[in-house]
Amino acid sequence: MYGDARLSAAMESMLGGTDAPPAPMSAIRVRMAAPIVPAARRSNHVARYALAAAAAIVLFFAIFPKASLALFERIVVNSYAAAHRLMDWTPPPPPPKALDEAQRSQQLSLAAAQAKVDFTIVPPAGLPPDAVFTGIDTMPALIYDKAKRVWSKSAPALQFDYKRSGGRTFSISAEKDDPRTGPYGKYMWHVDDLPGGKVAMTKHARFIWKNGDQMMSAIEDDGISAAEILAIRAAMHGHDIAHDARETVVKRYRLP
Amino acid sequence: MALSIDPALVTAARSDDVSLELLIVAVWPEAYRLAASILRDRTLAEDVAQEACATMARSLDGLKDVKTFSPWFYRIVSNYAIGAARRRRPTVSIDAVSECSTQFDSSDALDLYDALAALPIDQRAALVLHYYAGLNSFDIAAVLGVAAPTVRFRIMLARRALAKALSQPSSTSDEVLSHVR
To answer: What is the pLDDT of residues A214-233, one digit of tens each?
Structure first.
């Protein structure tokens, strides 16, 4: 095998064995008197190709604007889908219209709500002193089975709504805890439209706890603080939820 | 490193024409051999070596540390040799090959010469600069105008190609890269 030492020795032997002619001092002196000729620098091939590609794309856009936009859109959509596939997540197809339309939000009493859901309702407790209960809304939900690739109707989630002093409102959600849905997100992003087509994104902490088979969640915002949510959870003796990410076999979607 | 020059001679050459001439005479064979190994053309190698020696003589005042003379000089020679190799048409004189080959008395060197000849210029230059001139990947990167990891990769490819050409089992990538600093 040509190891480092043998390679160096062979190289030494090869180059050392090359007879060099005598140093042509007169020719070198002539060159020393001449202006320096810079050694040819290597042009950056990558930059050259990138520039050529960019120019070709700009030209294509200029000549075929409509086709270019369609192509661009297709590339973006395909890339997005490919990225999701790489992350082991395939976007579900739209739910069947019949299922979608059968689901409508309703305002219910606690007893009526209990009849609609498949978990035992534990109502919120330890609420802020100025909170006034305004009602329970059902939030229709559908379940998408990633393995079977089918949508199915799910028992609705519930939303406990409250109003507070200063015109503030907040709500607390309750639904059946389903370990198959994987871990729950710790944050929610609120997106506000700003003038000029810009958007402002605000991060809100999401608190989740469990009582029996009920999973309750609340999001801190102007209507309720994180401390107040933690007080509710403590008053309800809620437990932590720890779902294994590997158990994400179904995805539950709440419908708007 | 093949080139070993007394720093005192380099210092003296900055202000003394006789010392400068002695320095040129001392470095000339190395400049020629390095250029010949990269170019594989004696006429072109002599031209490159002359230009490199002239540039060295004119730029000697700009060398900050005389102890780094050898890599600095190798860099000058390599730059000119690689530039010349890229400018010329990619053909090899059969005379040049046979003329050079007959002068080696080591069978390893004979095999290696043929195997080196088949390498692309960038890989050949990287290999010669590393194993003969003793330059590290950062110095070679400065000479070739590429990143140091690229140099290490080229040396790995060159070694693999050499191993194949010499019908030797190739080292693994990790082994090869671990040798190059």
So the answer is: 999 999 988 999 999 999 99
Question: Nearest chain B Cα to A26, which residue?
Answer: B50
Complex prediction ipTM? 0.71
Residue B172 sits at φ, ψ, to 5 deg, of: -75, 160
CA dist list (Å): B94 to A13, A223, B99: 21, 87, 8
Closest CA to A170 of A117, A246, A224, A215: A224
The string of pLDDT tens digits covering residues A13-57 is 777 777 888 888 888 888 888 776 655 555 567 788 889 999 988
Question: What angle is formed at CA A128 by the lines to CA A123 and CA A129, rounded to 5 degrees?
Answer: 110
Tokens of A29: 């002196």
Among A6, A26, A28, most B C-beta atoms within 10 A, so best to mutate, is: A28
- pTM, rounded to two decimals: 0.45
Give the orientation angle of helix B94-101 with respect to helix B42-59, to 10 degrees: 80
Asked if B85 contacts B39 with a C-beta cutoff of 8 angstroms, the reply is yes
